[in-house]
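lol forgot to send this yesterday, sorry. struct tokens for the thing we talked abt
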């Protein structure tokens, strides 16, 4: 019996695709084909008479239901056309995840970022490739904050080159040129354009599909420690911001390098969230603040220091629906409004095992309050560090952790 398998063939937007003899023979002998509407238009003239085509469109569960029905009815291969390299942010990974027991044979083509790099005659071995196609901004934000010299980005119909360019300008990343490739591989409609800092993006939409490459023109300052006087402050009150040495020491006790989700509760000016995002760009930062003024402060300060991607939540933390946000692996409490015990109790129910919790105490009373808040929750006290800045009173930085063995 013939073994059922997926054959995945990578193609570009070339209107007259060329396939090597092995691939051409597979297509000629095929009966069931699949791909996007655009792929169908490109290969339609090459498919044998009487073929069946399965459109790849959302919801994907319906697509895979059709695949399963085909395999159940016969032993034919399902031949899937995909863009470029099917394992580069491509459909092969989806098939592998959804049908792990079905064999794959993959014939890759150049992916669009490779094609664009060749059009630019650009060595791309060190390019950081990211995708915002149906994805959040996270990977692009991380690459920009890290100041990667070369960033290749796959776009979609919402996160367009215009939207990406505007986001970069909003957060001060004017140290990149952007080269956009449209319809790469299509002999009639392919277009490549480069935009430099200060250029205005065209109002007309870019042809889709498109991708882009960002080339760094200068290093953007990324200091280790942000001076508090450089922040927009709440009503100009300098006392309402965590001082830089205390902020950096608190972040060191949070141990953020290997963590993914960080919560900053009572963020006020946003200094701890922004410092965390700047030093650990991979972090998903969720910042909570009860005062409405915090919204504009976070926006202004995030743009000033170039830290896009911080999720701001305004309102009473004890009443917020926390299910909307990724469970924390590290938490900093910067403000509690006299309800520290209730806050720690609620946090203990959503913290992931191994999560760190850090609190800055300015008085013996607040230190005792934190210890008493931790004790009944099952969290473990993990130490403290005292620091004095200039002539200010000592600050005690306290740490607790959620046991790893405890199930969340």
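and heres what i got for the seq, position by position
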């Amino acid at each position: 019996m013939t073994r059922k398998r997926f054959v995945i063939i990578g193609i570009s937007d070339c209107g007259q695709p060329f396939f090597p003899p092995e691939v051409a023979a597979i297509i000629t002998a095929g009966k069931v084909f699949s791909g996007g509407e655009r792929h169908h238009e490109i290969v339609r003239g090459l498919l044998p008479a009487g073929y069946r085509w399965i459109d790849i469109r959302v919801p994907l569960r319906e697509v895979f239901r059709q695949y399963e029905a085909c395999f159940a009815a016969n032993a034919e291969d399902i031949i899937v056309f995909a863009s470029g390299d099917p394992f580069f942010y491509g459909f092969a990974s989806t098939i592998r995840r959804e049908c792990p027991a079905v064999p794959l044979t993959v014939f890759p083509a150049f992916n669009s970022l490779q094609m664009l790099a060749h059009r630019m005659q650009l060595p791309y071995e060190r390019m950081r490739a990211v995708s915002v196609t149906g994805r959040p901004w996270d990977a692009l934000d991380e690459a920009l904050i890290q100041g990667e010299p070369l960033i290749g980005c796959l776009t979609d119909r919402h996160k367009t080159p215009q939207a990406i360019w505007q986001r970069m300008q909003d957060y001060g990343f004017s140290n990149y040129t952007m080269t956009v490739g449209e319809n790469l591989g299509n002999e009639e409609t392919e277009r490549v354009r480069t935009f430099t800092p200060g250029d205005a993006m065209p109002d007309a939409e870019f042809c889709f599909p498109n991708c882009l490459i960002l080339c760094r023109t200068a290093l953007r300052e990324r200091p280790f420690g942000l001076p508090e006087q450089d922040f927009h402050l709440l009503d100009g009150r300098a006392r309402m911001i965590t001082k830089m040495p205390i902020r950096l020491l608190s972040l060191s006790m949070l141990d953020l390098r290997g963590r993914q989700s960080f919560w900053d509760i009572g963020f006020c000016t946003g200094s701890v969230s922004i410092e965390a995002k700047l030093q650990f760009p991979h972090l998903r930062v969720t910042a909570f603040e009860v005062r409405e003024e915090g919204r504009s402060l976070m926006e202004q300060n995030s743009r000033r220091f170039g830290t896009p991607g911080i999720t701001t939540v305004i309102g009473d933390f004890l009443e917020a629906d926390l299910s909307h946000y990724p469970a924390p692996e590290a938490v900093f409490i910067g403000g509690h409004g006299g309800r520290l015990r209730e806050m720690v109790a609620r946090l203990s129910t959503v913290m992931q095992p191994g999560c760190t919790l850090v609190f800055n105490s300015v008085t013996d009373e607040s230190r005792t309050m934190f210890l008493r808040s931790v004790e009944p929750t099952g969290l473990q006290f993990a130490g403290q560090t005292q620091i004095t800045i200039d002539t200010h009173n000592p600050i005690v930085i306290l740490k607790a952790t959620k046991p790893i063995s405890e199930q969340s």
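The chain has twelve helices and 17 strands. anyway ping me if u want another try
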